[in-house]
Design brief:
Structural class: alpha/beta
Bound molecules: phosphoenolpyruvate, magnesium ion
Number of helices: 27
Largest sheet: 9 strands, mixed
Number of domains: 4
CATH class of the largest domain: Alpha Beta
Radius of gyration: 31 Å
Distance between the termini: 82 Å
Strand content: 15-25%
CATH topology of the largest domain: TIM Barrel
CATH architecture of the largest domain: Alpha-Beta Barrel
Length: about 750
């Protein structure tokens, strides 16, 4: 029985292949397929429904239904049995369709006389394209083999769609990958860019779907799987040697498990038995995995299915000979498109990229951190970008709005270019004041520093007009590596940073790991609430080995020059004194070894927890400087996770409660004569920066690209007036001072 089914579906596939190879136009091909399928399956009807848009299906070809209804009959996603197959991506096999739940009678098709219904989704790698249906008068349920045969036809249809087989005069389908697409994601890094798509992992295109000789195809599959196993073993050997029990090793171990899985191989061999080529068999299995992945709610299961998906891609590359590199050159103005990308890989592309679009990613991901350091516009969470984009496609990335225009039409192109021209003009304005101080109309000078973390940031010190580096996030160097850096490496790196700064102040913040920043080579702690967990100075004090190594590296890098060190996430006085004691110990050791001691050394703390705002006066007197880490401070003040898109923007930084809280800190520091600055992201937003300056924060550290816009605004404002506006809004019972401040700014024209 199985053999008969196998040879049946192989016969059907053979006939389909002739259609694929024929010169027929798009519609004619679809018609031939419905005819062939109905004939082979012994049903009166076979119909193809394809998506017109995301919500609408259209009858595009039929054998058996009223031919007049082709391109006339449409239905919404979820409507009728066909709509239900499309929505759920699941097969419906009904012996008595008219009495099935959701059946919809469509008089124009003459459908009511057909009793049994079998509908399968037409989808390619998780992308829904339409529904393939057979119907017959005889009330019967279709066998598993018949369902399989129809699924294979649907897969062939999906592949042919991908290859543009149905496009042409009077075609049923619009050409894929030719239409403009707008994708809404999330801002990872602001800025706009225009360029051409460069797929980090190009799609594998399977052109030969049908296998003539199953033995040959099975052998090809076996060889490819063997090849895959060897390569995974090699990767694993390399990774284990380097990094011990890292996450990467775990992923590779999952790969190895799947590569050796008998079930996986058996399913693919069965696909070959039914007439598919080896690569089509892998892709069919991959499509099934993707369908399961869409349904999976458990995150662990999803991750494993993701691994299996990656592995199938590798196998396809081996079988088709299409490597990661297609041999193509990076296009002009490349815009990188990827599902996700590691920081190391991103750094390799470096500044040649104009923009980056990621299907996944998060604001705090390492890729986002690197993109920010390189000042490359980045959109994350751009759903479907991998499916929609082809290498070389024209694309416009709006990092400010988190929008991607793929293959934009002329109107969008023109509007976008206007916007970019305006931004370029603004940049010119900022460049013209680069060497001028940020002096307000009331005569107050505000110090503007920049935040940094990678060597790639340092050229910005010159170009942005920043006075120094107010926050050097040392963890970035740890995050972009696959193993723990050594002391000498770090010392050399910090020395290069100080060299590049040419005497400008650089505030090195000691390692701030934990929470969203997890080192791949350190065992992650499984904590219920990592943002409130074992992170930053808490790790540094509990396990001081790395902190000591880092302090030594900093002292050696300074080699007698001035040095500023800042401890992250200090929540109470004692943490500061304990960390400070570590510096003293390190100093004593360097002295003993006869090494040069910094000509001046200042030790500060970040104020990122509300508790530190209320620390004793002694702390305020003792600490040499404080920098408010507004990103963390705000999340704890409002109890709103900075990584959670749902709540992240809920509370305005210009909320009167928060500004009042900050004002209290400013007052305390004024009383104790403590040097105070602000280095969270808000310092780089001009309106926020203006308000911070108005309430007395006269030293702000921000991303380099923000220095120009912030300085431009500050130079046009009177801080006394802005302070008055803020206080008036508060007295009037406003929740946020933003509307009042914006009104003031409009008044300035
Ligand atoms: C902050 O919390 O505001 C800050 C500057 O530190 P990070 O963003 O690195 O946590
Ligand atoms: Mg912080």
């Amino acid at each position: 029985m199985v053999e008969r089914a196998e040879s049946e579906s192989r016969k059907l596939l053979g006939r389909l292949r002739d259609t694929m190879a024929s010169e027929a136009a798009g519609q004619e091909r679809l018609d031939q397929i419905t005819h062939l399928t109905a004939d082979s399956m012994g049903t009166e009807v076979c119909s193809i429904y394809l998506f017109r848009d995301d919500e609408t299906l259209e009858l595009c070809a039929t054998q058996g239904l009223n031919p007049e209804s082709v391109h006339q009959t449409r239905m919404k996603l979820g409507e009728g049995l066909v709509g239900r197959v499309a929505r759920t991506g699941k097969v419906i096999n009904a012996a008595d369709a008219p009495s099935s739940k959701g059946f919809r009678y469509m008089p124009e098709t003459g459908e009511e006389i057909y009793s049994s219904f079998l509908g399968v989704p037409i989808q390619r790698l998780g992308e829904k394209l339409g529904v393939l249906v057979v119907q017959s008068k005889e009330a019967r349920e279709f066998s598993a083999d018949e369902v399989y045969a129809l699924e294979v036809v649907a897969m062939v249809l999906a592949e042919m769609t991908e290859l543009g087989a149905f496009v042409g005069e009077g075609a049923a389908l619009r050409a894929r990958h030719t239409q403009p697409v707008l994708i809404r994601g999330i801002t990872g890094q602001e800025g706009s860019a225009e360029g051409y798509v460069w797929l980090h992992e190009p799609r594998v295109v399977v052109t030969n779907l049908v296998g003539d000789n199953p033995d040959v195809e099975r052998q090809r599959l076996t060889d490819a799987v063997e090849n895959l196993r060897v390569s995974v073993d090699q990767l694993l050997a390399g990774a284990s040697g380097e990094t011990g029990d890292s996450e990467q090793v775990q992923v590779l171990e999952a790969y190895r498990m799947f590569a050796n899985s008998k079930g996986w191989l058996r399913r693919m061999e069965e696909n070959i038995g039914r007439g598919l080529s080896a690569e089509a068999a892998v892709e069919k299995e991959q499509s099934d995995v993707r369908a399961r992945m869409m349904q999976a709610t458990d995150s662990y299961l999803r991750e494993r299915l993701q691994d299996l998906d990656d592995l199938s891609n590798r196998l396809l590359r081996i079988l088709t000979g299409q490597g990661n590199s297609t041999g193509a050159d990076l296009p002009e103005n490349p815009i990188l498109v990827a599902r996700n990308i590691g920081p190391g890989e991103l750094l390799e592309y470096g500044r040649q990229l104009r923009g980056i679009v990621l299907e996944e990613g998060s604001v705090g991901s390492h890729a986002a951190i690197v993109a920010r350091a390189l000042a490359i516009p980045l959109v994350i969470n751009a759903k479907r970008i991998q499916i929609e984009a082809l290498n070389g496609d024209h694309v416009m990335v709006d990092g400010d709005q988190g929008i991607v225009h793929l293959r934009p039409d002329d109107t969008v192109v023109n509007a976008f270019r206007d916007k970019m021209a305006m931004q370029a003009k603004a940049q010119e304005r900022y460049a013209s004041i680069r060497d001028k101080p940020a002096v307000t109309l009331c005569g107050k000078t505000i110090r503007l520093d920049m935040n940094a973390g990678l060597m790639a940031d340092l050229p910005s010190l010159e170009s942005s007009g920043a006075e120094g580096v107010g926050l050097f996030r040392t963890e970035l160097q740890f995050l972009v590596r696959s193993k723990m850096p050594r002391r000498n490496e770090l010392a050399a790196l910090y020395a290069r940073v100080l060299d590049a700064a040419q005497g400008k102040r650089v505030v090195f913040r000691t390692l701030d790991i934990g929470s969203d920043k997890v080192l791949p080579y350190m065992k992650a702690e499984d904590e219920p609430n990592p943002a409130l967990g074992w992170r930053a100075i808490r790790v540094g004090l509990d396990k001081p080995g790395v902190m000591r190594m880092q302090l030594q590296a900093l002292l050696r890098a300074a080699n007698g020059r001035a040095l500023s060190i800042m401890f992250p996430f200090v929540a109470q006085y004692e943490e500061y004194t304990a960390a400070r004691a570590e510096v003293d110990k390190a100093l004593a050791r360097e002295r003993k070894l006869g090494h040069a001691i910094p000509e001046s050394l200042e030790i500060g703390a970040m104020l990122e927890t509300p508790s530190l705002a209320f620390a004793c006066n002694k702390f305020y007197q003792e600490v040499e400087f404080l920098s408010i880490g507004g990103n963390d401070l705000k999340q704890f003040f409002f109890a709103a996770d900075r990584e959670n898109e749902r709540v992240r923007r809920r509370y305005d930084t210009l909320n009167v409660s928060f500004l009042t809280f900050l004002e209290n800190i400013v007052d305390r520091c004024a009383t104790t004569d403590t040097r105070l600055s602000f280095c969270g992201e808000d310092a780089g937003r001009p309106v926020e920066a203006l308000c911070l300056a108005a309430i007395g924060l006269h030293s702000l550290s921000m991303r380099p690209a923000s220095v120009g816009p912030v300085k431009h605004l500050l130079r046009r404002c009177n801080l006394d007036d802005v302070r008055q506006v803020i206080h008036d809004a508060r007295d009037a019972g406003e929740q946020s001072v933003r509307p009042a401040v914006m009104e003031y700014l409009r008044g300035l024209n």
